[in-house]
Amino acid sequence: LSPECLDPLITNLLNPTHGISIPSSYTSHLTPIAAPKLHADIASRTPSDPKAPNTPYVVMLHAIDYLSTTPPENPSAVAAAKPIVQEAWRFSHAVVRASNTSAASPFSMGSNERHGKNGGGSNNTDPLEKSKSAAINGDDNKHNTRFARLTFPTPHRGCMHGLAGYFEAVLYGDIELSTHPLRADAKSKDMTSWFPIYFPLKVTLPFPHNLLFLSLFPLLLLLLLSS
What we know:
The protein is α+β, with helices and mostly antiparallel strands.
């Protein structure tokens, strides 16, 4: 529902002098995962629902393995590896104050925000960036267009079934909500009303160790061998 549902409220209904948008901003995060149970469940639905493999699912992620992780601080200790979860993009609903005519539009953003944290700016010469320039820089809903290019190192071989998606929202001041696996307890401990989202792959991707996943979201996925 956001950000599209908030756009007309901020521009047409929110008081420009003392109006406050709650939430004020939110970010989306991704990491590759192995989820054999979810993959099997979706595969069993595919004969009756051909769109099942192309549908994102809001689900509590239990029986999964994070494929991109950081090395343990103490190799001899028995502890779960920490996943590498990267920010894809951010939406902000800043209010333009009537007394500040130089304030930025609530829909304005820099090039990195438009493309995602690691997407690059409009001067990027990457062919993929150029091929998407019309959609990204066009006049149709351009303030909500997002594109992210993220690289995930995978230290061990495995099989990728999809991407896990998380969000963090700044409601007001220092009050936040989070489903981020590394920060949820600090920002919204015991929150059970919001689950992660799972983006399945129609075809699984087995890979050897020391691989780099190049995630071009929401377009496609590529695999690159690390040097």
